Amino acid sequence: MSRHATPPMSTRLLRSYVGGEWRTAADEGTPLHDAVTGEEVARVSSTGIDMGGALEYGRRVGGPALRELTFHQRAALLKALASHLREHRDELYALSARTGATRGDSMFDVDGGIGVLFSYSSKGRRELPNDTVYLDGAVEPLGKAGTFVGRHIATPLRGVAVQINAFNFPVWGPLEKFAPAFLAGVPSLVKPASQTAYLTEKLVELMLASELLPEGSLQLVCGSAGDLLDHVTEQDLVSFTGSAATARRLRAHPAVVRNAVRFNAEADSLNCSILGPDATPGTAEFDLYVKQLVTEMTVKAGQKCTAIRRAFVPAELLDDVQEAVCERLARISVGDPSNPDVRMGALASLEQREEVRRSLKALSDAGRIVFGDPDHVEVVGADAERGAFLSPVLLRADDPQRAEPHEVEAFGPVSTLLPYTSAEQVVELAARGQGSLVGSVVTGDAEFARDVVLGAAPWHGRMLVLDADDAKESTGHGSPLPMLVHGGPGRAGGGEELGGIRAVLHHMQRTAVQASPKVLTAVGNSWVPGAPRSEGVHPFRKSLAELRIGDSVVAGPRIVTDSDVAHFAEFTGDTFYAHTDEAAAAANPLFGGIVAHGYLVVSFAAGLFVSPEPGPVLANYGLENLRFLTPVKPGDELTVTLTCKQITPRENADYGEVRWDADVTNAAGDSVAKYDVLTLVAKEAAR
């Protein structure tokens, strides 16, 4: 079968994409059912897949192809891929409805996943070099003479990122793991949960059909993982989303342990939301709390790892919150997610519904149900028994010390109201979740928020503080964002997904390189002080194609005079006493007399190194890392050495960024100012 072939979406066996081709198992597979109608959607099996061969193919074909590209080139491919998927998202929406998702749920999953690709593309272009190596931190001097220095670099691991995903987000889940791995230069092997694998299969089909991805950079296994983990090496990574019990089992796999494989887990999480004592009925925060709680209970039918399971409320407000939440839940219509009037669809499967009902029995031992019936629900446009429908269920546990609410997760539209009496107590109760992905505090009291955030932070990967000020822009309790870490300590898995560049670096090896400045410059493609410099044609006369790292100009000297300092003070309005009052400046223990403005020094330096005629340099767009190191007094001579430090071509422009090392020294050779100058330079000289 060809790479982009599309069998009809009838009852059929889902395919895997490994070794550069689509493959279908030889057996009949296990049936998968429509969450709404109970009809068989497809069958799934991975029988016959050579798992070791798939990993080796990723290492041998996908890895080298990705590593040939720079970070910026990979980022550009992510952007193009996101645009391609956005054009085809209706195809994903159609299948998403069969998982029990409403249109809003599907947008959360599909558009959220596409948004992750856009976000990583943007961060890659803004925060990573147009190179294949990442420089992690500053150069460290290791000897007195400056001939022995060190620096950390990050390079892509030479393995495959094995990504085992949960059933609840069959689009967003794979994409939020794939994006940072791809940007890092590491190929992915996606293993979706079987219940909703038909949607992930479609996603991967669309990704491959884009013809944007280097061969071997993405593989898919539908069905059992089989002996997949038996074949992982020290260069591979494993990322898992699912139950804490499964995470423990996979983390302890002999090959994972033996080879010290990087293992990231995002697991069970008894997330909490805390209402502040100030948020009484009638306040904006009270209404925000109630609305957020109901939203988190009903979006994706509560099948979110970030959903609110424990709702902590000041004891004196418990009745008020219960009444308001029940009133709002009563307006939630459950049924066929394709019906625009339906607010909550079905759970992913009948088996999942039974699992939630079992968990509810345990939770009921600690409290009582105040809204909903686990065994009965009125549905719109569907059969309540054939589809995996469940009523939203709100419990109330008047004794917050009971163990069950802090230990049992009902992975569905279920939450428990719990009272508290002080900030100290609610922090202690939040910690009893033994590690959560996210907690939220809804309050207008900044001091209460500070106490709770700092107290609960060690048990949480993310904390949201919601109030009337940020409500309009807030993405909500349950929405992980690609620029922030998504993960949590303890029970939540002890790992981190997303997290912007942090997630990219998770797929790379940090290595300390100790060498001479010349070698460190060559390794990192960034000039290091002490490395050779090349003088000759003024570097501002060179296009990007002609410019080389180490190209330099030395300009000066220029004598700073009393009149220079006085004129600069008058012209700019900066009449700080150290520049204008001889007696006061003499009393200053740092200066001992009149000194030149720091910005006067920088301005003189620019006048010294500039090449004023039109040429390849298009613009100066900033300074970074500016430090004034030695006071400059009238009579001092200034010399500036400007050296090409780093060259970053822009992929879709006819210019690039050049970073210059600027070192301004006095007659004694002491540095008075050091900084980086950023310019935009044409790729080719004008003709």
From TrEMBL:
Sorted UniProt keywords: Oxidoreductase
Similarity annotation: Belongs to the enoyl-CoA hydratase/isomerase family.
Domain MaoC-like residue range list: 549-660
Protein name: Phenylacetic acid degradation protein paaN
GO molecular function, one term: oxidoreductase activity, acting on the aldehyde or oxo group of donors, NAD or NADP as acceptor
PANTHER family: ALDEHYDE DEHYDROGENASE B-RELATED (PTHR43111)
Coiled-coil regions, chain positions: none
Any Pfam family the entry gives: Aldedh
Domain Aldehyde dehydrogenase span(s) in chain numbering: 22-452
NCBIfam families (UniProt xref): PaaN-DH, PRK11903.1
SUPFAM superfamilies reported in the protein's UniProt record: ALDH-like, Thioesterase/thiol ester dehydrase-isomerase
Source organism, top-level taxon: Bacteria
InterPro entries: Ald_DH/histidinol_DH, Ald_DH_C, Ald_DH_N, Aldehyde_DH_dom, HotDog_dom_sf, MaoC-like_dom, PaaN-DH
